[in-house]
Amino acid sequence: MPLIAAGLLLFLIIIASLLYGAGPISASEAFMVLAGSGSEEARFVVSELRLPRTIIGLVTGLALGLAGALLQSMTRNPLAEPGLLGVSAGSGFAVALAILFGASTATLTSFVAQLGALAGCALVIAATRVQGLGNDPVRLILAGATLTGLLLALTSMLMLMDQRAADEIRFWITGSIAGKPLSMLQATLPSILAALILIVIVARPLAAMALGEKAAVGLGHHPGRIRFLIVLAVALLVGSATALAGPLIFVGLVVPFIARAFAGPDIRKTLWLCVPVGPAVILAADVVSRLIAAPAELPLGVVTALIGAPVLLAIVRAGRMPSL
To answer: Record's PANTHER family (predicted)?
Structure first.
């Protein structure tokens, strides 16, 4: 039932994403286009601008939502999130470095972003193995914030080295799905499909690991191998999402938080519910970014931060940290 409700909500948000924008085309004009008529200008805005933006938002939300759920389950930490633990920042730094050396956001492949995300994931795993750090959610987040701050500082240094790169990095790093062509999906869809296959493989062992590593081993699973596959899946998902929309924080925190509230602690049900909830969160934030400052637009990364920050504070201030 929650999955059906989330699917219906996502459908309504997709319609809203096609109908509403910061430009002069009204919702009624856009609706006429969806009904099969409408002016030439309205058809162009809906089909060439809003539709690609909506599709990219769907893929980005799916990737970040699943990545957040995997990280939280693997680390047994409800605060683990790609944007908070340095995974997105590592991906962003790799992309900024590529831009400095001549790449552009229009031609950038997702491989560079995935490589940076993989490095960020490796640091997360190392952090969880530090005595007492992995078992303390708040201390782990502080360590992740330190790593994120360091990577953002290095990214800022890159911006000082080249004006052309600075302009492109500055636009990209705020996070946005506006103006992105559907051709960008060609480089990311194979990686996302590979990550989805990995998720299918690790879902059952990951649920067993929630009972403890000894129980998982007793059931015939190999925790070390499962962690490696999870890290690979997270790197593919976060790298693809970062290449598409820039580094967006808090999405991987909010989406699993909402999914667990309705699906319970079973990671398999949580992952299923993240499939519609992730895109719904991204597209809803994107619609808000268009309308809140019309005729201008707020960067999507700003809106996701405004949505996610209260959720983070609510989790941290809870009397009892949610158990995974």
So the answer is: FE(3+) DICITRATE TRANSPORT SYSTEM PERMEASE PROTEIN FECC-RELATED, FERRIC ENTEROBACTIN TRANSPORT SYSTEM PERMEASE PROTEIN
Phi, psi for 137 (deg, rounded to 5)? -55, -40
Alpha-helical (H) ranges within 76-109 are 87-100
Distance CA 231, CA 118 (A): 7
Among 81, 61, 82, 58, which residue's Cα sits nearest to residue 278? 61
Which of these, 321, 302, 312, 283, lies nearest to 52 by C-alpha position? 283
- Give the confidence band of 117 by pLDDT, cuts at 50, 70, 90: confident
Between CA 279 and CA 284 the distance in angstroms is 8
3-class SS of residue 132: coil
* Cα–Cα distance measured from residue 308 to residue 324, given in angstroms and rounded to the nearest whole number: 20
Number of H helices, E strands in the chain: 14, 0
Q: Which DSSP symbol is given to 220? A: T
Residues in Cβ contact with 305 at an 8 Å cutoff, skipping those fewer than 6 apart? 249, 250
pLDDT one-digit tens code per residue, 222-261: 888 888 888 889 888 988 888 888 888 889 889 998 999 8
Taking the C-alpha atoms of residue 130 and residue 257, their distance in angstroms, rounded to an integer, is: 25
pTM for this model (two decimals): 0.87
Predicted confidence (pLDDT) per residue in 190-227, tens digit:
889 999 999 999 998 888 887 777 777 776 778 888 88
Read off the tokens for 241: 């999402």
d(CA 278, CA 203): 18
69 secondary structure, DSSP code: H
